[in-house]
Amino acid sequence: MTVPGSPAGGAAISADKAKPAQADGPQPWDLRLVIEQDEVTGAYVYKTVDRRTGETLQQLPREEVLRFRQAEHYDPGEVFDGLT
Length: 84
What we know:
Layout: H1 15-18, E1 31-37, E2 44-50, E3 56-60, H2 63-70
Antiparallel strand pairs: 1-2, 2-3
């Protein structure tokens, strides 16, 4: 005897297997890498951007670091000196 909504063999299809689970947040195929050159410092900026929303998810170097490089008193090695 077959039950309406079930396959002819009598085995029921679970709802879990019928639909793939949707993960929260962007999937790898939703992301793109944008490489720009900062106009002031000349440093390259790497951004991970969500294609769907246009939101910048990650940026290297961070904006704070770029602003720090713009300061007149900045010299490389002032923040961290690996020699001492």
